[in-house]
Design brief:
Its main location: cytoplasm. Pfam families: SET. It comes from Roseateles albus. Keywords: Chromosome, Methyltransferase, S-adenosyl-L-methionine, Transferase. The protein is mainly beta. It has a single domain, classed as Beta-clip-like. Helix content is 6%, strand content 32%. It contains one helix and eleven strands. It has a three-stranded antiparallel β-sheet, with no helix packed on it. The chain has a three-stranded antiparallel β-sheet with strand order 4-10-9, with no helix packed on it. The protein has a three-stranded antiparallel β-sheet with strand order 5-7-6, with helices on one face. A hairpin with a 2-residue loop joins strand 9 and strand 10. The relative contact order is 0.22.
Length: 141
């Protein structure tokens, strides 16, 4: 699978394709400047309790906690940003504000750069090997 996207939730042109990090990734399909908004993640609005229940025993899931009680499950979302892989030296960040999950560039991105974020705390609780390949890799998610 490789497809370009520029839907209503994308602010930058991106392409989803196989990633050297894990599975599929999202890649810049145009040059992006530091601080630019890359896109917005949408999904099913659920409770945090339901999000944590869904995460049990699954390795591939895209959950973002919006607050202490609300979360978004983007596992079945059509948004390209759901394919964003983790990196210990990310080039983008996730910002959660007013229920919106948005991605912003932490540096200038060239065409073909894989867009990555630091997942922070995950349901893996340090048991899933990190595959980012960065020199300062923490080795676990």
């Amino acid at each position: 699978m490789s497809f370009a996207t520029s839907d209503a939730h994308q602010d930058a042109a991106v392409r989803v394709r196989r990633s050297r990090i894990d599975g599929y990734g999202v890649f810049a399909d145009e040059a992006v400047l530091l601080g630019a908004k890359l896109g917005t993640l949408t999904g099913e609005a659920i409770s945090v309790a339901e999000a944590r229940r869904r995460a049990q025993g699954r390795q591939r899931i895209m959950l973002v906690e919006l607050s202490a009680s609300r979360a978004i499950d983007a596992t079945c979302s059509a948004d390209a940003m759901r394919f964003t892989n983790h990196s210990c030296a990310p080039n983008a960040r996730i910002q959660v504000e007013d229920g919106a999950v948005e991605f912003f560039a932490l540096r200038n991105l060239a065409v073909g750069d894989e867009i990555t974020v630091d997942y922070g705390l995950t349901h893996h609780e340090g048991r899933l090997a990190c595959r980012c390949g960065q020199p300062d890799c923490k080795n676990w998610l």
